[in-house]
Amino acid sequence: MSPAAELLSVRQGDNLKPTILLVSTNSWLTPVRIAGTFADLGCGVEAVCPPQNALTLSSAVRRTYPYRSFRPVVSIDRAIASADPSLVVSCDDLATAHLHAIYRRDTCAGSPSGAATAELLVRSMGSPASYPILDSRQEFMVMAREERVRVPNSAWLPGPKALDQWLVDNQLPAVLKADCTSGGEGVRVAETREQAHRAFRELISRGPKTQTFKRMLVDADMTALAQALRRDRHLVSIQQFVAGRDANVALACWQGEVLAQITAVVLERRSPKGPAAVIKLVENAQIEAVVKKIVRRLGLSGFVGFDFVIESRTDKPFLIEINPRATQTCHLELGTGRHLAAALCASLTGTPMARRPSVTTRHTIVLWPHVREALLPIDILEHAYFDMPRSDPELVRRYGSRKPFAWSKTLETLWKASRA
After folding, report:
1. Pick from 213, 240, 267: which residue ends a domain?
2. Closest residue by Cα to residue 306 from 286, 285, 287
3. With the C-alpha atoms ordered 293, 280, 186, 242, is the resulting torsion angle positive or negative?
4. Which of 134, 159, 259, 364 could form a disulfide with 384 if both were Cys (CB 3.0 to 4.6 A apart)?
5. Which residues pair with 215 in a beta bridge?
């Protein structure tokens, strides 16, 4: 039995059912799906999240703690102390940055409680030596090159002069990215020099943006405002644009080893740079080899996501990003080797993973709730599996009907047919 499993055995008795603490700083719906999957496995699920987060409505979550945008680390500290979790799961990039900051603080504090929290975070996320790399898009790309992984050319952008020099040395279009951003908010594609400079100014701006007010007014999400008022400035990097098909991998890993993974190509997106709306499950030996190499190099544990572009000209995958957190497909229950939460729980508790059948035999999946009929071609409507919460009708009622991604009666009928 692993040391983590022995600790759980002492703390939780013979049933070995761990408590999972989800950390969410925004209004994404991905965490609520992960909560449901862990609850189905018999885990106790608690969450620290903003007051209006869907986790506060989920029947899978037994308790929530308020995430305070203006005191983020304190609010996460309190949740960890109250929940006493076996595993902490980050649900977005900002949450990951907060958890890394807590680890750095607690390793310097020298207190017993700080040491216990630091141990918990290492168990949950993996080797602390990887945290600075995971917090920096460019440092990650440098590391990937060291491992001889195929990646696009990239560089830091400390200022406009560096941007001009990069544009001289490299071809457009290019992609500018800001650290500690998620869901496409910190990504800009530039096809001209003027667009590149405008994107750079937007990404380094410390003031509130249009998206800030949207998140405040529509999502009741104050995180972006808190960052703006703190005058946080994101580090920005630039990558060469790779033309091709987007692909992603969601992983469960443990101490540098891949336990289970879901690889998919993106068929449709919610918006040009936003999250996937429709995916197709695939297998790709080159991608699988890359993620195993990176996970081993960084000593990762928990949920991790990787983004690739499969280049149109060569059909070769380019690694463009890592997401050190739970990603959009982590909750899917797709059978042996593809049930990430079950694999993670088995390693955490030191018990064999129960064989669980896949929820579907179909390869095309429409991800809830990012769907509208106008977005979906007829072949997808007829042959896809429609993924949605099965045991939380209140979530479907509340979030499945949000415009402009309405869950219509037609789609509901097709979803039921896909599960028949």
Report:
1. 240
2. 287
3. positive
4. 364
5. none
